Amino acid sequence: MQRFVLLSKLHMATVTSCQLHYEGSITVDEELMEVAGMRPYEQVHVSNLNNGERFITYLIPGARGKREVILNGPTARLAVPGDRLIVFAYVLMDEAELEGHSPTVVVLDEKNNIQTVLRRHVWRG
Fold first, then answer.
1. What is the pLDDT of residues 38-89, one digit of tens each?
2. How many Å apart are CA 120 and CA 105, to the nearest integer?
3. Domain residue spans in the chain?
4. pLDDT tens digits for 98-107?
5. In whole angstroms, what is the distance from residue 76 CA to residue 49 CA?
6. At CA 75, angle to CA 71 and CA 81, rounded to 5?
7. Mapping DSSP to helix (H, G, I), strand (E, B) and coil, where does residue 67 land?
8. Active site residue: 22, 25, 41, 102, which one?
9. Is 17 an annotated catalytic residue?
10. DSSP 8-state assignment for residue 79
11. Fold of 2-119
């Protein structure tokens, strides 16, 4: 049996821009993606802490070090610059892989600088 489990998350990311006239997705600083173990074009779930919106989209790598988090296309209507987001990446794992699995949590400040990188709740079957 396989389970859909949390791989990593960007916690408290700040929206820097919204680009309505774009084909869709979320652009995230490439460095933040790498620290979280996220990959370009990977599906992510996004929760907006300011208004409660939740949506699914995919990642586009942004310019390294610019700390941009940009909502593109229709998702641009679900936030405004300054809103705080949680970006979740999930992975399918079989039961054997769950043993010792620990999601990566990248906690960001209001300028999308990395504050801490945490490993959470190691699974012990």
1. 999 999 999 999 999 999 999 999 999 999 999 999 999 999 999 999 999 9
2. 7
3. 2-119
4. 888 899 999 9
5. 15
6. 45
7. coil
8. 25
9. no
10. -
11. Barwin-like endoglucanases (2.40.40)
Q: Which residues on neighbouring strands pair with residue 55, listed in sequence order?
A: 46
Q: Which of 22, 47, 58, 102 is catalytic?
A: 58
Q: Rounded to 10 degrees, what is the CA torsion of 74, 17, 35, 117?
A: -110
Q: Give the DSSP per-residue string, 23-82.
A: SSEEEEEHHHHHHHT--TT-EEEEEETTT--EEEEEEEEE-TTS--EEEEGGGGGG--TT
Phi-psi region of 58 (alpha: psi -120 to 50; beta: other; left: phi over 0): beta
- Specify whether 102 is catalytic: no
Write out the two tokens for 66.
């610019």
C-beta of residue 44 within 8 angstroms of C-beta of residue 59 = yes
